[in-house]
């Protein structure tokens, strides 16, 4: 494989690898989340039930991993589509990457803040 095919400008090897890793994490964590939220607690989806579920550190960790994996996977996929069609220069691609990282960190902070009562 030529170096220019998997260059940092066209997405990069690490972005490709983490896209695959987050896809696996999404499948596993989403299955766990759906199992504990919708299958084992059929008809009992209220605040008290969710609070009891999130009181277990493992399930809160699964939700945080699910949030992080979903954010990275979605924003990296969005980045790759934009880089294929509009952001063709290296400086614009770098600016896009920085903006999406800031957006991702902001959403991750907001999501973690929403789970904070059960973390602390």
Describe the protein in words:
It is a single chain. The chain has 120 residues and is mostly helical. It has one domain (13-119): Up-down Bundle (3 helical TM bundles of succinate and fumarate reductases). It has four helices and no strands. The relative contact order is 0.11.
Order of helices and strands: HHHH
| Tally of separate helices | 4
Mean pLDDT over all positions? 86
| Distance N to C terminus | 48 Å
**Proportion in helices:** over 70%
What structural class do the secondary elements suggest? mainly alpha
| CATH evolutionary superfamily | Fumarate reductase/succinate dehydrogenase, transmembrane subunit
The counted number of beta strands is 0
Please tell me the CATH architecture by its name: Up-down Bundle
CATH class, named Mainly Alpha
For this structure, the CATH topology is 3 helical TM bundles of succinate and fumarate reductases
Instruction: Calculate Rg over CA atoms.
Output: 18 Å
Q: What labels would you give this structure?
A:
mainly alpha, 120 residues, 78% helix, 3 helical TM bundles of succinate and fumarate reductases
Blueprint of the fold:
Layout: H1 13-39, H2 47-54, H3 57-85, H4 90-119
């Amino acid at each position: 494989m030529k170096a220019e095919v998997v260059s940092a400008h066209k997405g990069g090897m690490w972005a490709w690898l983490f896209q695959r890793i987050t896809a696996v994490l999404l499948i596993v964590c989403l299955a766990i989340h759906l199992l504990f939220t919708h299958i084992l607690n059929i008809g009992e989806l209220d605040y008290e039930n969710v609070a009891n579920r999130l009181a277990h550190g493992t399930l809160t960790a699964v939700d945080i991993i699910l949030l992080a994996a979903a954010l990275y996977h979605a924003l990296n996929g969005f980045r790759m589509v934009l880089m294929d069609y509009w952001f063709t220069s290296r400086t614009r691609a770098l600016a896009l990457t920085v903006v999406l990282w800031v957006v991702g960190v902001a959403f991750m902070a907001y999501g973690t803040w929403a789970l904070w009562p059960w973390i602390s």
